[in-house]
Amino acid sequence: MTDKCTGCAESQEKAKELQKIIAKYKDTRGALIPVLHEAQEVYGYLPLEVQREIANQLDIPLAEVYGVVSFYTQFSINPKGKYRINVCMGTACYVKGANEILDKFRTRLSVDVGECTDDQKFSLDACRCIGACGLAPVVTINDEVYGKLVPDDVDDILDKYEEL
């Protein structure tokens, strides 16, 4: 079996799961946000095709679905990497150099905020305060927290994950 066929099987399985999610909420008032949350758990993000299917099945305009997806920061229209990097841009982190750290990640990974590396290993995001101001500037990679960073720390951090 080729990789392409494996991808098709995986895609078909995800589509079936999406149909189950939609069916579970079909007659529930205010179902859009729970459907989007569960769909994102299945796909890892909310591509336009998924948004279109949700809109069609829930009989709501695609513009409404997209409006919700683009308004709430917990939803993503871009794929996420195996290692999801979040650079805190809250006031304490920003004042202590978070912007320079974010720039270093951008340069090293050759991606911008909201993007994923071609190999799907890393995605880069900036977020508001994560509540670790005493460790500013702070970066999280999945559930790992890195604090009191300087731009020179970025290479060592990424090297650790590239070896995994």
UniProtKB/TrEMBL annotation:
Membrane-spanning intervals of the chain: none
- Annotated CDD domains: TRX_Fd_NuoE
Top enzyme class? oxidoreductase
Q: What is its EC number?
A: 1.6.5.11
Q: Which cofactor does it need?
A: [2Fe-2S] cluster
**What family is it from?**
Belongs to the complex I 24 kDa subunit family.
Q: What is this protein called?
A: NADH-quinone oxidoreductase subunit NuoE
Organism this protein belongs to:
Anaerovorax odorimutans
